[in-house]
# Entry
Amino acid sequence: RDSSELMRLCRRSGGGPVDISDDLFRVLRAAQRIARASDGAFDVTAGPLSVLWRQARRQGTLPDGAGLAAARARVGHDKVELDERRRTVRLLQPDMQLDLGGIAKGFAADEAIATLLRLGIGSALVAAGGDIVVSAAPPGANGWRVGVAALEGADRPPAGYLMLRNAAVSTSGDAEQVLVSGGVRHSHIFDPRTGQALTGRSSVTVVARNGTTSDGLATAVSVMGAVSGIRLVDSTRGAAAFVAYADAGDIRSRESSRWRALDFRRSPSWSVEHFSEPLRPH
# Structure
């Protein structure tokens, strides 16, 4: 919305430091941490590219090179300055546009769980689209049973099930919102560093200690690909990931080291060919 705090901040890009709410500061601080760890594969400054690719999907045509270059020039996590002491943010370049779509739902689910805990509700599940945050297990259960989406989409049987408590899980996939041009399938997920949409099919599920982290990491891993993405997850304390992707008509998967320690029950109706050798980045 034009009246939102985020949009008011964007309108002041290119100017001086701006006082922002504690909630927005915490989201941006988490986003910048993931952006640095992923070398920009996750970047909330990618709003100009988001707008360009949404328009491309509506029109059914790829963005032109000049438009991509102009949008890309306004993107970069190094264009954001956070002042921890003053609780301010400065957007260094004019006409910047922040897009929190890859992290805000996870943060909102975290806040909902925190509110329920303050109200004395110690066992709950909060779902925000592809992001789920849970507290203690339901009475008489070992945890919350959460389905892991299959590569083919939410209308297909889950790839398997996780049993979780006091954790978060997020899935980033491209089964929907695609643009097909010249026989090439372009995902709604794009690489902020190049401006180009992903052309391979993948589904990334990340488990972490909170939804803010799992949400941001799921997007980052989608962009980075299985090899680099799993390396990022393994370097993130308390995080685990499962990546499924299409390769020459087959579905392959890769798991992080901590994923193998989770209570993951693969669905008998969904099987993948698992390869333990290093996989090629997308």
